[in-house]
Design goal:
The protein has four helices and five strands, in the order αβαααββββ. By secondary structure, the protein is of the alpha+beta class. It has a single domain, classed as Nuclear Transport Factor 2, Chain: A (Roll). A five-stranded antiparallel beta sheet has the order 1-2-3-4-5. A hairpin with a 6-residue loop joins β3 and β4. The longest helix is centred in the N-terminal third of the chain and has 20 residues. The protein starts with a helix and ends in a 12-residue tail after the last strand.
């Protein structure tokens, strides 16, 4: 009887063994791209649109994006109301926005990430802006976060 119970327990353990999931790791790989590999027009577009968003904090006027610049989700999420709320907080803590300084360009399987150091008038300001460009040459995401000297690839797709 004890042997039968032991055999049943072993069979249950073997049957409950977790499955290994095969995943294409190419989707997760992020590599830094040199300046010569970057399309200058695309880089200018990423800079201009990122700067347009942050300059809204200085001017309180936002020129809405269009479908030739950004994806539909970015267009829907980047509203004047949302920017105003964010800008109030940014101006209070960081001062006026000055400019963006390109820190690096990173490539995934489907996107190019432009990483900018956002410069503000207050010395305590240490912010970063990431502009994601998809394979259709549209901005697919714009993210602001605290600056870290080291690029954290885990934060790239969050």
């Amino acid at each position: 009887m004890k042997k039968a119970g032991l055999i049943i327990c072993l069979l249950l353990l073997i049957g409950c063994k977790s499955k290994t999931v095969s995943r294409d790791t190419e989707d997760l790989k992020i590599k830094k791209v040199s300046g010569t590999e970057v399309d200058a027009n695309q880089q200018r577009k990423a800079y201009d649109l990122g700067k347009r968003v942050l300059e809204t904090c200085n001017t309180s006027k936002f020129k809405p994006f269009n479908e030739t610049e950004v994806t539909k989700s970015v267009m829907e999420n980047t509203t004047e109301e949302r920017l105003t709320k964010t800008c109030q907080r940014f101006r209070q803590y960081y001062g006026s926005f000055i400019d963006l300084k390109l820190d690096g360009v990173y490539k995934t399987k489907n996107e190019i990430i432009y990483r900018y150091h956002a410069l503000y008038t207050k010395k305590v300001a240490n912010k970063e802006l990431r502009v994601f460009v998809n394979e259709d040459n549209l901005i697919s995401s714009i993210k602001s976060m605290d600056w870290d000297e080291k690029f954290d690839a885990k934060l790239a797709d969050q």
